[in-house]
Amino acid sequence: MKSKLFQFLLDKRFVALCWFAVTLAVPFKHVFLTSIHNNYLIFKHTFYHTILQQSLYSHCPYHYDTNHYGPIFGFLFAPFALLPDQIGCLLWVCCISLSLFLAIYHLPIDWKYKAIIYYMTMNEMFTSLISMQTNALIAALIIASFIAIRKEKDGWAACFIALGFFIKLYSVVGLCFFFFSRHKLKFIGYLIGWSVVFFVLPMPISSPSFIIQSYGDWYQSLVAKNMENAISSYQDISVIGMMRRISGNRDLSNLIVLIPAIIIFALQYVKIKLYNDFRYQLALLASTLLFVVLFSSGSESPTYIIAMTGVAIWFVLQESPYRKYVIALLVFALVLTSFSPTDLMPKVCRIFVREYSLKALPCLCVWLVLVYQIIRAGKGFKKKL
């Protein structure tokens, strides 16, 4: 009986059905139950502002809050902005969801492990999509760059990294897989070429001078956003944010955490002999997905689709039968990171978790364990995936 149930749960059609049922619940909520989400309106008007050469980063009367994506984003959003909001909203969330689904699908691991990753990230994916955010796309681009480098398709890897960077700066973490490339000079050349392409791509629908100015405006908006994050309970859900809120000192510098974190992350590269070991490579992918969220002051609840994908990859790497601490960390991450913003958690607990940025805590624990396992040459990892 259990065998049949597991076979059913692992069936590709059922997994895909669950994934896209969750996806389609998002536009249904916004279009039919409430209204078009504010973030979608920001994205839409970013396209029109690009055409009209109006500031991409100032407040707009059509929505509250401001845009924080690179100038290329308005160009990329054109196919959705030109459609009626209901249709554009539907296609937007479907494309974002599909990008992550395909990225996970193309990971070179057995299907049962992919299914586990899908199930473990499904709730976070919904949380991200409900805010119409690009985080699932960013996770997909990071994973895609990893896959492309492994397949020696350095041109595509450079494309994914550059595209992610020009949308959201921290996507540059795709460069962490540079050492796995067998064509490093070619990779660097492709990266420069794609960076030039994405830099100039919005210019035909606007003007070179406006786009160049917009990059300066983008930098200023990110600086201002970083200052705002420290005082908002909905932002800076990161390790430094957690420390600021628990200590009550909002003036703690990011460098207090960031410098030690970078040193710890760098220690993962000490095992040069493991660079060609697929388990090591996959572990570094998981570590990168966790790192980019945990140590960014711009992290918010929807950003954790990236980190939870890292947690899921870490879990499938673990040898079975799973050790007690592995199960404990997984449950800790699912409860406090994934389900804490949902109605499954009592309201008082949701507020407490948010006020102290505790959503970051389980992911930090997983990351530290993962780094330790990598430094110990993959101790505790499966022999085969």
What does this structure look like?
This protein is mainly α and 385 residues long. The protein has a domain of 154 residues. Helices cover 66% and strands 0% of the residues. It is built from 18 helices and no strands. Helix 2 runs antiparallel to helix 6, helix 6 packs antiparallel against helix 7 and helix 14 runs antiparallel to helix 15. It is globular, with a radius of gyration of 21 Å. It starts with a helix and ends in a 10-residue tail after the last helix.
> What is the CA-based Rg, rounded?
21 Å
H/E topology pattern: HHHHHHHHHHHHHHHHHH
Shape: globular
- Our count of helices gives 18
**Total strand segments:** 0
Oligomerization state? single chain
SS class: mainly alpha
Strand composition percent: under 5%
Query: What is the mean predicted local confidence, pLDDT?
Result: 89
Biggest sheet details: none
State the share of residues found in helices, binned by percent: 55-70%
Low-confidence stretches: none
Query: What is the first-to-last residue Cα distance?
Result: 26 Å
In short:
This protein is mainly alpha-helical and 385 residues long. It has helices spanning 2-9, 12-33, 38-52, 72-76, 78-81, 85-105, 111-130, 135-150, 154-167, 184-200, 208-229, 239-247, 255-266, 278-294, 304-317, 324-338, 347-355, 360-375.
Features:
385 residues, mainly alpha, 18 helices
